[in-house]
Amino acid sequence: MAGAQDDRAREALEIAGRKLRRGEISRRDFARLTSMLGIVAVAPTALAACGSKATTGGGGTTASAGGGGGGKDSLRFLVGESFWANWHPYNHTAQIGFKIQRNLFDRLVEVQPDMSLKPGLAESWRQIDARTWEFKLREGVTFHEGQELTAEDVKASVQLASGFDGDKKQPLAMAATWGVPHKGEVVDRLTVRLTGEKPFGPLLNTLAITDILSAKDIARGRTTLENRPNGTGAFKLVEDKPNAKTLERFDDYYRGPAKLRTMTWEFIQDSQTRLNALLAGQADVIDRVEPDQLPLIEKSDGASAISVTAPEIQSMWFRMDKDPFGSNAGLRRAFAWSLDRESMAGLVGGKATVGDSHLASGIEFRSAQEPMYSFDPERARAELARAGGPVSFELASSTGFYPKSKEICELAKQNLDEVGFDVKLTLMELAAWIDMLFGKGRPGEVFYGGWGNLTKDPDFALATLLHSPGAWTGAHDRRADALIDAGKTATEPARREQIYGELQTYFWDEYVPSVPVLYSDLSNGLRENVQGYEVYPTAVQEFWPVEIGG
């Protein structure tokens, strides 16, 4: 259930923070871990504050506080993730932060529900050379506090977010997503050029998650950005409580005023409490609906559900820097042909689908691979024999974080034992699982876990875990590294498609650094009178077009 998952998320953040402070993991490993788990990764100096927020409120009895939706121009949105991060858009990877920021800020380009990009604050753009892009900004855009948007704001924002400016010893979290620092040049009041230290293929997708800030706010320093959001978005913050954020329509929004006058985002930890509030008409929209709750919503009077397949991949990850699998691709292929992945996806339900590439659903340049791995004991035994099997190994997983992880791993052990592997299944609490990932001696040979994507660009999906040193996977393959590097620095779409096509085929047929199991389900519930609401696969919500009907 989502409530249990939220408890695990808070536990994971606290564990990772302690390990960081004791020097047991690096800042980079801290960010990687929290990204993998899909939870908040804040600046280490803010851990104490975030921890205190995470422990307040969210109980099941609070769902009815404040009454129902609040009228036809007010909306109540119940969320399953607490508001852990402060308001600095570049210094966290909190999913809830990206969700609410979507409505408070704007970006040069905007991602759509189908993962495509459209013009945002930039009316148009062009590539000048391999490292430089020029953007033409919209006329008449203003920040909530009255400043006019100009090229100076974009220059300052991108330089700070990408790591070109700022504290080099403690870079902001967003700099890791960018990967390549970019310098801004003001051509005129509404024209800006961005130049990377090297070519950067994911530029547009990265700009689609980079909120544009006021240059004056940036100049005032980090404290200003942390304490109040001053964006150009459709809504502005008017009330900031630990477990509830109230937003009000920004009447001077460049696309025109939103249809809603106000909306309240409220943290309710327990998924059943959120569901009860929706069914009782006390909430207009709820997120993180569990797959087994979907039939209850669909059978109800006055509510419905929307489900999409998220760009998150849950996989069996090999320790690529240790035996028996790291040096034996044949064993990894035998493993892949041993799993009943269809049944595993069925255990999760909803919109979860079987993985058919090392790139998740919705990722750019993704291509389904053939033949699909299936539960084929005869083929698996043949591969195992050629690879020198059978072998013994440990398969480890946390429990209570990823949906049905225990059941999936139990089925995997059953499949693998039938083929001839000797599997020790270890199901552990989250703290022990994190110790396994980062422990001295790199314990364990295979582990089950997920990797979510903030953008639709394949570089974010591949570079952290499958390029050497491969974070906790220990990936180290010259051909894989060369292809990932080439994809990052190529800027022509046709060339990037060629590179990632070759990479996916290599991963699927030869290298097999992991076995994709499924792409995750993402479901929201809403009252039937809520109109214009869409679920984005990246888990953000945009309320500018939303209205409440009669």
From TrEMBL:
Family: Belongs to the bacterial solute-binding protein 5 family.
A GO CC term assigned to this protein in UniProt: periplasmic space
InterPro entries tied to this protein: Peptide/Ni-bd, SBP_5, SBP_5_dom
GO molecular function, one term: peptide transmembrane transporter activity
UniProt record, GO biological process: peptide transport
Organism: Conexibacter woesei (strain DSM 14684 / CCUG 47730 / CIP 108061 / JCM 11494 / NBRC 100937 / ID131577)
PANTHER family assigned: OLIGOPEPTIDE-BINDING PROTEIN APPA, PERIPLASMIC BINDING COMPONENT OF ABC TRANSPORTER
Highest taxon of source: Bacteria
Protein's name according to its UniProt entry: Extracellular solute-binding protein family 5
Entry keyword set: Signal, Transport
Residue stretches making up the Solute-binding protein family domain: 117-470
Listed Pfam families: SBP_bac_5
Keyword Transport found: yes
